[in-house]
Design goal:
25% helix; 3 helices; Rossmann fold; alpha/beta
Length: 194
């Protein structure tokens, strides 16, 4: 069965200008469930009647919370969403992975990938809670695949950091191998984890 072309039964917080939970940018929705993706009761309500999950809830950068808020909040939400989805019989789930799982994006020191092009066997060099949470999310998705027999995929999207607040200090992303901006061309074969 094809994935439905609408937003259906899940909590959404849009970060684009003008998009809110009440205005999902013109995308059809049969209902909105607003709350924390880390709250099992909220997630159970959101999953009622769905056959697939796309989990995107996270603090998307290490400076958007304390290290504990970023790491613990992100991995709790992924665990709860996938555990509740598996318990509800959902058999397909996609989560937001990140190239930050490799390490260089938010590191305090200048890091470079061990080699390019990057593949799934590259040594990881994480120094920040967000990158570590993305590694843990991928492991969680793999475990949920075994536990519940669901197909999971973590899409390691590359991110344009231009829209994030400038916190000052050393944790700003650095341009280097593996970093891209919206002006770069996408490369075929971005790594996927299951």
């Amino acid at each position: 069965m094809a994935w439905p072309p609408s937003i259906s039964s899940h909590a959404v917080r849009w970060r684009r200008p003008g998009w809110t939970c009440a205005n999902p940018g013109g995308l059809p929705a049969d209902r909105m469930v607003v709350g924390s993706a880390g709250d099992p009761e909220v997630v159970r309500r959101a999953l009622d009647g769905v056959n697939a999950v796309i989990h995107l809830a996270a603090l998307p950068a290490p400076m958007l919370g304390t290290p504990e808020e970023v790491f613990c909040g992100d991995i709790r939400a992924t665990f709860v969403v996938l555990e509740e989805a598996g318990g509800a019989g959902v058999r397909r789930a996609a989560i937001a992975g990140s190239m930050s799982a490799l390490g260089p994006a938010w590191a305090d020191s200048v890091l470079h990938p061990a080699y390019v092009p990057v593949d799934e066997q590259i040594p990881l060099q994480v120094e920040d809670p967000y990158g570590l949470s993305k590694q843990a999310d991928e492991l969680t998705a793999a475990m949920m695949s075994r536990r519940h027999g669901m197909t999971t995929v973590a899409l390691r999207a590359r991110r344009d950091h231009d829209g994030l607040p400038d916190p000052g200090g050393p944790r700003l992303p650095r341009r280097g191998p593996g970093d891209v901006s919206r002006h770069d061309q996408p490369e075929p074969g971005l790594p996927l984890s299951a």
